[in-house]
Amino acid sequence: MGVTDSKALKVWRGLFVASSGITLALAMPVWGYLADRLRRKIMILRANLGGALLLFGMSLVRIPQMLIACRGLPE
Question: Does residue 27 form part of some domain?
Answer without folding.
Answer: yes
